[in-house]
Specification:
By secondary structure, the protein is α+β, with helices and mostly antiparallel strands. α2 packs parallel to α6. The chain is built from twelve helices and 15 strands. Helices cover 48% and strands 13% of the residues. It starts with 5 loop residues before the first helix and ends in a 7-residue tail after the last helix. The chain has three domains: 106 residues, no CATH class; 204 residues, no CATH class; 166 residues, no CATH class.
C-alpha cells in the first residue's frame, strides 16, 4: 500500500512546479521588451509510482507527483535558419539599392520648376550636352552673335560635367570600400563584423562553462542568437548546434558557424567562422584592393578569411606563412558584403565574362565610352588634311584637336586617322578636356571643295554635319574602343548622354523590386518567429491566474494532507478508549 506520507510528496512537488511556472512567467513578463529575448516555459513530467517515495508499495499504485525537468525556450531552429538565410539576401539587395539611389544624385539635380516652388529633376549631362549643341547651332546663324569662343566655353562646361561625374563615381567607389573596411576593421581594432564573430565565440565558451557548472544558459543563448541574426545580414551563415561530451560525460551545447550559399546550405569549401575544440575559436575577415589593371581606373576588391584562432589574429605555420581559408569573392552570394563587392567589382557588360550586375564600374566605364565617342566625333570631323597654317604648311592632327585626354601627342609616325585613334584611346570621363590648341580659328566650319581649308567663307556645312552626327546619326556604343565587344547602347550620341540616368534608374528600380520581395519574405519569416518566441502579455496574464490557482490548490492539498496526518498520528491511537 502507499505510504501515508505520499500525499505530502505529491503536494510538495505541485507547489514546486507551480512556483517554478510562476517564476518563469514573471521572467517572461519582465523581459517582454528585451531585444532578442525568447519566451521560456517549464518542462515537467509526472513521477511514476515508486520513483519519489521512500517505501515500497503494494496493491493500487498512485503516481508520486510532478517533476520539473528543465526550463526551455519556445524557439524553432528551422525558422532561425530561414530567417538568417533571408536576412542575408535582404542585406545584399538593400546594400545595392541604397548605393544605386545615391549614384542617381550624381547625374541629376533639382531645380525650381516654377514660381510655386515645385521641383523637377533635370539630367545634368543631357542638359549640358543640349547646351553644347545649341551653341553649335547658334554659331551657324548669321543673326547670332555667338562666336567660336562661346562654343569652346560650352565644350569646357560639358567636359567639366563629365569630369565631375567621373570624380563622384570614384568617390562613391572609395566610400564603398571605406565602409566595407570599417565594418571589418583590423585584428587590433575589429569592426562590426569581426567584433560579432569574437563575441559569438566568447558567448559559446561562456554557455559551455555555465552548463558544466549547472547554471542556466537560456539568457546567454538569447544573446548569442541575437548576434547570429545580426551577423547574417553581412554574410550568409549556416549555424550548426551540436552536443559535446565533457570528461564527466556531461553533454553541453556547442555552436559552429560556417559560410553558407544563398539557400542556407554550408558552402562546399567548408569555410568556418566559429568553432574549435571548446567553441571559442573564430576567424576574421580582411579586405584588400588590387592595383588597377587592363586600363581600368580601379582595382579588384578582395575579401579574405583567416583560419580559426583563439584571439582572431592571423595564425601562421612553422615558416611564418599566414594561414588563410581559400575563400573567393564568388563564394559570397548573399549578405551586405556580397552587395558591397558587386558594387565595387561588377561592371556588367564591361566584365569578361559579362556579369549580371551593373555596379559602379559599369557607369564609370560607360561615361568613358561616351567621352571617347564625343571626342572621336568632334576631333575626326574637325580634322581637315587640307587646312594650312599662316605659312601655308599643313596643320597636323594634334594642331586641330578640340578634345583631348591624357595625351595630345600620337605615336611616332602616326598621322591622320591613326593619330586620332592614339589620342582618343587615352580619353576618359575623368580626364577629358578642351584641347590646349583649341583657340579661335581651330574649329573647322566648312570643308567645301570650293574653298578647302578656308574657315572664313561664311559657310557652316561642317558645323551642321557635326550637329547632325551628334544629334541625328545613330551609333552603337560598345565596351571596346573602336568597336568590338558587347553593345551597350544604340542610338544618337545625344540620347547616349541622357541614357546614363535612365540606365541607372532601371537598375535601381529592378533592384528595389528584388529588395522589396526580400524584405517582405524576411518580415513574414520574422512574424512566424515572433508568434512562437516573443512574449504575449495576454498569454502570460492567463498563465499567472492558472499557475496561482495551481499553487493555491497544491498548498491547500498539502494542508489537507497535513491535517489528515495529524489526525491519524494524534487521534487514531485514542480509538476504543472508553
Amino acid at each position: 500500500m502507499s505510504s501515508m506520507f505520499d500525499g505530502l510528496y505529491i503536494a510538495r512537488s505541485g507547489v514546486r512546479a507551480s512556483r517554478a511556472a510562476l517564476n518563469v512567467t514573471g521572467q517572461n513578463i519582465t523581459n517582454s521588451n528585451t531585444p532578442g529575448y525568447t519566451r521560456q516555459r517549464v518542462d515537467q513530467s509526472s513521477i511514476s509510482p515508486g520513483d519519489g517515495g521512500l517505501w515500497a508499495s503494494t496493491g493500487t499504485s498512485i503516481g508520486d507527483g510532478v517533476s520539473v525537468d528543465s526550463i526551455s525556450q519556445l524557439r524553432d531552429p528551422f525558422l532561425d535558419g530561414e530567417f538568417r538565410t533571408q536576412n542575408a539576401k535582404s542585406g545584399m539587395s538593400s546594400q545595392q539599392v541604397s548605393t544605386l539611389y545615391d549614384l542617381e544624385d550624381i547625374f541629376t539635380t533639382t531645380t525650381t520648376a516654377d514660381s510655386s516652388s515645385k521641383s523637377s529633376v533635370i539630367d545634368v549631362l543631357s542638359d549640358e550636352f543640349s547646351n553644347f549643341l545649341s551653341q553649335l547651332q547658334n554659331l551657324t546663324s548669321t543673326s547670332s552673335s555667338v562666336s567660336e569662343s562661346n562654343v569652346r566655353e560650352e565644350a569646357k562646361a560639358l567636359a567639366g560635367k563629365l569630369n565631375t561625374a567621373a570624380k563622384a563615381l570614384a568617390t562613391a567607389r572609395q566610400q564603398q570600400f571605406t565602409n566595407l573596411s570599417e565594418q571589418i576593421g583590423t585584428p587590433d581594432n575589429p569592426g562590426t563584423v569581426n567584433a560579432l564573430l569574437q563575441n559569438i565565440a566568447s558567448l559559446d565558451k561562456r554557455i559551455k562553462d555555465a552548463e558544466v557548472a549547472g547554471s542556466s544558459v537560456l539568457e546567454l543563448k538569447d544573446q548569442q542568437n541575437l548576434l547570429l541574426d545580426k551577423l547574417s545580414k553581412y554574410v550568409p551563415i549556416k549555424v550548426v548546434q551540436t552536443q559535446q561530451k565533457m570528461p564527466n560525460n556531461q553533454l553541453v551545447d556547442t555552436t559552429e558557424v560556417y559560410l553558407a550559399d544563398p539557400d542556407g546550405a554550408k558552402l562546399p569549401g567548408g569555410y568556418q567562422l566559429i568553432g574549435g575544440a571548446d567553441g571559442s575559436e573564430y576567424a576574421q575577415f580582411s579586405v584588400s584592393q588590387d592595383a588597377p589593371a587592363d586600363g581600368k581606373s580601379f582595382g579588384l576588391t578582395q575579401l579574405h578569411l583567416t583560419q580559426l584562432s583563439v584571439d582572431g589574429k592571423i595564425p601562421v605555420d612553422g615558416d611564418g606563412n599566414d594561414l588563410m581559408q581559400s575563400m573567393k569573392n564568388s563564394d559570397l552570394q548573399a549578405g551586405s558584403f556580397a552587395g558591397n563587392l558587386s558594387l565595387l567589382n561588377s561592371s556588367g557588360e564591361y566584365d569578361i565574362p559579362t556579369s549580371s550586375f551593373r555596379g559602379i564600374g559599369f557607369y564609370s566605364q560607360y561615361l568613358d565610352t561616351i567621352a571617347q565617342n564625343l571626342a572621336s566625333v568632334m576631333n575626326t570631323m574637325n580634322y581637315n588634311p587640307d587646312k594650312k597654317d599662316a605659312g601655308g604648311s599643313p596643320i597636323p592632327v594634334e594642331g586641330q584637336l578640340l578634345f583631348s585626354g591624357s595625351t595630345e601627342t600620337p605615336a611616332s609616325g602616326h598621322t591622320g586617322t591613326d593619330a586620332l585613334q592614339d589620342i582618343t584611346a587615352g580619353i576618359t570621363a575623368a580626364n577629358i578636356h578642351v584641347a590646349s590648341v583649341w583657340q579661335d580659328g581651330v574649329l573647322t566650319t566648312t570643308k567645301d571643295a570650293a574653298n578647302p581649308g578656308d574657315v572664313n567663307t561664311g559657310s557652316f556645312t561642317n558645323i551642321l554635319n557635326m550637329i547632325a552626327k551628334l544629334k541625328d546619326t545613330s551609333t552603337s556604343l560598345t565596351t571596346q574602343t573602336g568597336g568590338g565587344g558587347a553593345t551597350i547602347f544604340t542610338g544618337t550620341l545625344q540620347k547616349a548622354f541622357s541614357s546614363v540616368s535612365s540606365m541607372l534608374a532601371v537598375n535601381a528600380n529592378s533592384t528595389q523590386t528584388i529588395d522589396n520581395t526580400n524584405s517582405g519574405l524576411l518580415n513574414n519569416i520574422d512574424n512566424s518567429r515572433q508568434e512562437l518566441s516573443s512574449v504575449s502579455l495576454d498569454d502570460e496574464a492567463v498563465n499567472i491566474v492558472q499557475f496561482s490557482q495551481s499553487l493555491n490548490a497544491s498548498s491547500r492539498f498539502m494542508t489537507a494532507v497535513d491535517e489528515c496526518l495529524q489526525n491519524i498520528i494524534s487521534n487514531m491511537g485514542m480509538a476504543g478508549r472508553g
